Amino acid sequence: MDIKIALLQLIPGKDLSENLSAGLAACREAKEKGADIALFPEMWSDGYFLPEDENEVRKLATETDSGFVNSFRDLAKELQMAIGITLLESHDPKPLNSVIFFDRTGKEILHYSKVHTCAFSDEAVLTPGEEFYTADLDFGRGTVKIGSMICFDREFPESARILMLKGAELILAPNACPMEINRLAALRTRAYENMVAIATCNYPKGQPDCNGHSTLFDGVPWCRDEEGVRDMCAFEAPEEPGVYIATLDLDKLRTHRSEDIMGDKFRHPERYGILSDLEVKDIIGGEFVPW
């Protein structure tokens, strides 16, 4: 059983209205290409634009019950296709960097706000999210357990680990940064160690500090009935804008999860106390200086 994921690798417009129009059109194209779910890059509502002035940021933020968000809710129901729409979400005292997933009936099934905000940079004007969530996504031919992490979340093994422990099979990851060899390697590692698929949607080349290369790592490094190892990168987009379809073989992933040793099968959580010790200080030390 396959699930088709549309990675909407798009250049944003100059305002919310343009992004709404372009986003709706991209979703319709995704449906025409056979997608079961369409995923936007990070903070599509304003094209990942974050002024330094907090008042200006608040003005750009969008309510979750706004016409912008509800248009994608309605379209999901019309197209019978799940949609993961990303937004700068209105929140007091500072906005959130969020994604909302609507299933093919238009029902909201998951609302996640970025936990690991880039507080060392532009995202210092945002509020971090508080938790990672999973949900069952019915895509018509079956159901898959999804979760989400956003951009910088991928750099922390705990993000994908928590989602795996909560049952995620597929992690859908909006993104806005250069996807170079090291960041791609991090995604590959998160997929390998947790036996999960990770679909990442980035902005294309032409958007500042972005370069496309949206990917799907399917989480299956080998199969018992095949010799050798296989490349878990099931799809990688080029740099150019486009609506790209990545296909995940859920049966192959589930077989691997049932047979292999990774994930939670041989963990020793009783030995990991330092990971949750809030009293632990910075071991590396030194002052961070952005390059």
Summarize the structure in words.
The protein has 291 residues and is α/β, with parallel strands linked by helices. It has one domain (2-265): Carbon-nitrogen hydrolase (Nitrilase/N-carbamoyl-D-aminoacid amidohydrolase, 4-Layer Sandwich), CATH 3.60.110. 24% of the residues lie in helices and 23% in strands. It has 6 helices and 12 strands. The strands form 2 sheets. Strands 5-4-3-2-1-12 form a 6-stranded mixed beta sheet. Helix 1 packs parallel to helix 3 (67-79). The longest helix has 17 residues, at 16-32. The protein is globular, with a radius of gyration of 19 Å. The mean pLDDT is 94.
Set out the fold topology.
Blueprint (H helix, E strand, L loop, with lengths): L1 E8 L6 H17 L4 E3 L14 H7 L6 H13 L2 E8 L6 E7 L5 E6 L20 E5 L4 E6 L8 H9 L4 E5 L6 H14 L2 E5 L13 E3 L15 E4 L5 E8 H10 L32
Parallel strand pairs: 1-2, 2-3, 7-8, 8-9
Antiparallel strand pairs: 1-12, 3-4, 4-5, 6-7, 9-10, 10-11
Silhouette:
globular
Number of helices: 6
Count the strands? 12
Under CATH, the homologous superfamily reads Carbon-nitrogen hydrolase
- Evaluate the radius of gyration: 19 Å
What is the average per-residue confidence, as pLDDT, rounded to a whole number?
94
Which architecture name does CATH use? 4-Layer Sandwich
CATH topology: Nitrilase/N-carbamoyl-D-aminoacid amidohydrolase
Largest sheet: 6 strands, mixed
Q: Poorly predicted ranges (pLDDT <50, ≥5 residues)?
A: none
Strand content bin? 15-25%
Helix content: 10-25%
CATH class: Alpha Beta
Output the strand order for the largest sheet: 5-4-3-2-1-12
Give me the secondary-structure category.
alpha/beta
Number of domains: 1
